[in-house]
């Protein structure tokens, strides 16, 4: 799209289809009449010979095209908003509904149902005669009270409202049974006597001056600086929750933040140490306290011909949630019991079969790493950073570094394995060591994309027990499809993908980089002989190429070839 003579007129060109250029009239038929025009070989549109320029229709200007594009964009946004308003109701899964209706949550005789009924003020179910006709809607009386949920009648409602008529709702909460939550041996209990901290907190109830946020000035709040901290929770910010009419997410976030800042400054501590607060019968008044509502019961008339309605008339959404939670809990317990039976059967099988000579002396099993293992991997990383030349780190690392390593291994489809002490399900897992593969040169479009650097580290007190052998054997089995595992250990890979035989990443070379003090020849000799048994060979030696503990270190490169063959070799 270009201008021919410096004017505001444009010429449309299509460099892909020279000689088959569409006329401007074809693109904007409403702006031009059917006038014959010639198209040159280079795609430019020329005036017909013999026709004055004043008589031909002008081409659309840039401003007209922009205006039409803006109109189309606005129409697309309007159409999108209409589609979002169309709610598609899907039928619930019959199996899920059956679980929700199976349990004490919908049994009128159960204690759970009675608690739900008490909290919801459910009236006793009265059996209806299916032969009677539905009662007609009662005629409105002459005197009607103003509706309290209508803004039109707000002033009238204020005049007729008497706060003293509802004072008993707040008094009911104040006079309710006092209970204080406390954690004893990991269990939350309700006591009748407060702790010292709770006693001090009670002195600050209903006082706006005592709350730390209430002292802020809403007009002097610091500017909101967006950071990456909210990214892990970005899935909670669904675009469908943006109010219609605010299509720019930044405007929505700033508007919400300003509302939140204005709300926080009106803060105070409230008294929640009552039984009605913990059982859900109390409701916040939006100011400084709670109240127990005393709402009148309203009769709900069911259709006598609706058999399903009568069959399930006593069921509630909360009862469904209770039943579903019980089913999920039972399924989890059944799964735990199944895993315990499988583990016991596996242990009996291992105890009765012939012992593998490659089995480790330590009672361990291997599994892929999880984010919960960071706290136990940190001491292993930092011990080698402080005490050993084998680690490239000269100072202790933080937990964020290990988290990044785990995430990088997942993104690169490379293994990260931990050796865990075998114990009962109630015992806390103890990690003895780890093994991982990392990209030699990060990125799928780098020269080292077919090479992975391997690392194996074991706690000092757990060395010489075969743990390193297990980690290396599994690491090679994952990275090299042709490697034949010597087994002798258990690899727990339930519910995880990418750690089967061969893994997911295609690799041509596996590399160990070892840094050793020049006088530690025995350590180097033992490490080299151990890795040579697995097909590694020394392909490089750099004297004094690293520095740690104020000493120069010799760096050795031990490489193992896999069965992968490069296309250009």
From TrEMBL:
Q: Where is this region: Disordered?
A: 1-63, 131-152
Q: What is this protein called?
A: N-acetyltransferase domain-containing protein
Per its UniProt record, what Pfam families does this chain match? Acetyltransf_1
InterPro entries documented for this protein: Acyl_CoA_acyltransferase, GNAT_dom
Domain N-acetyltransferase: from-to ranges: 364-562
Q: Which CDD domains match?
A: NAT_SF (cd04301)
Signal peptide interval: none
Q: Name one GO molecular function term.
A: acyltransferase activity, transferring groups other than amino-acyl groups
Q: Where is the composition biased (Basic and acidic residues)?
A: 10-39, 53-63, 140-152
């Amino acid at each position: 799209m270009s201008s021919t003579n410096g004017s505001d007129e444009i010429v449309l060109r299509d460099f892909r289809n020279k000689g088959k250029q569409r006329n401007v009239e074809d693109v904007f038929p409403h702006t031009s009449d059917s006038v014959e025009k010639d198209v040159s070989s280079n795609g430019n549109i020329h005036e017909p010979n013999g026709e004055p320029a004043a008589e031909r229709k002008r081409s659309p200007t840039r401003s007209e095209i922009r205006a039409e594009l803006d109109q189309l964009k606005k129409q697309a946004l309007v159409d999108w908003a209409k589609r979002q308003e169309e709610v598609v109701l899907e039928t619930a899964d019959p199996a899920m509904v059956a679980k929700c209706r199976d349990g004490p949550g919908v049994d009128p005789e159960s204690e759970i149902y009675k608690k739900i009924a008490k909290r919801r003020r459910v009236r006793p179910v009265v059996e209806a005669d299916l032969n009677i006709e539905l009662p007609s809607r009662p005629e409105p009386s002459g005197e009607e009270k103003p509706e309290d949920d209508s803004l039109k009648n707000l002033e009238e409602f204020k005049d007729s409202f008497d706060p003293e008529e509802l004072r008993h709702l707040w008094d009911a909460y104040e006079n309710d049974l006092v209970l204080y939550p406390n954690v004893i041996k990991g269990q939350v209990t309700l006591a009748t006597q407060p702790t010292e901290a709770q006693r001090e907190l009670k002195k600050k109830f209903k006082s706006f001056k005592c709350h730390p946020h209430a002292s802020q000035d809403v007009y002097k709040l610091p500017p909101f600086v967006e950071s990456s901290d909210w990214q892990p929770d970005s899935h909670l910010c669904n675009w469908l929750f943006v109010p219609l009419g605010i299509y720019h997410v930044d405007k929505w976030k700033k508007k919400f933040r300003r509302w939140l800042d204005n709300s926080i400054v009106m803060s105070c501590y409230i008294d929640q140490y009552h039984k009605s607060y913990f059982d859900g019968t109390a409701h916040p008044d939006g100011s400084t306290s709670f109240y127990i509502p005393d709402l009148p019961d309203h009769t709900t008339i069911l259709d006598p011909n609706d058999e399903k309605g009568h069959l399930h008339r006593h069921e509630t959404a909360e009862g469904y949630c209770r039943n579903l939670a019980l089913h999920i809990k039972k399924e989890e317990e059944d799964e735990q019991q199944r895993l315990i039976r499988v583990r016991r059967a596996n242990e009996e099988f291992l105890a009765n079969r012939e012992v593998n000579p490659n089995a480790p002396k330590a009672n361990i099993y291997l599994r892929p790493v999880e984010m919960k293992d960071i706290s136990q991997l940190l001491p292993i990383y930092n011990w080698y950073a402080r005490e050993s030349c084998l680690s490239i780190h000269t100072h202790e690392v933080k937990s964020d570094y290990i988290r990044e390593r785990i995430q990088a291994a997942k993104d690169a489809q490379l293994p990260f394995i931990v050796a865990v002490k075998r114990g009962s399900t109630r015992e806390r897992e103890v990690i003895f060591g780890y093994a991982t593969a990392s990209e030699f040169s990060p990125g799928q479009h780098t020269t080292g994309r077919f090479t992975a650097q391997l690392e194996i580290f074991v706690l000092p007190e757990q060395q010489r027990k075969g743990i390193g052998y297990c980690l290396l054997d599994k690491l090679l089995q994952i990275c090299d499809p042709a490697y034949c595992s010597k087994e002798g250990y258990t690899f727990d890979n339930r519910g995880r993908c990418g750690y089967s035989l061969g893994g997911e990443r295609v690799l041509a070379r596996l590399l160990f980089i070892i840094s050793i003090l020049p006088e530690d020849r025995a350590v180097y000799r033992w490490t080299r002989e151990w890795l040579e048994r697995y097909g590694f060979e020394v392909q490089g030696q750099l004297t004094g190429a690293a520095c740690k503990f104020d000493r120069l270190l010799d760096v050795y490169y031990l490489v193992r070839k896999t069965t992968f063959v490069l296309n250009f070799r």
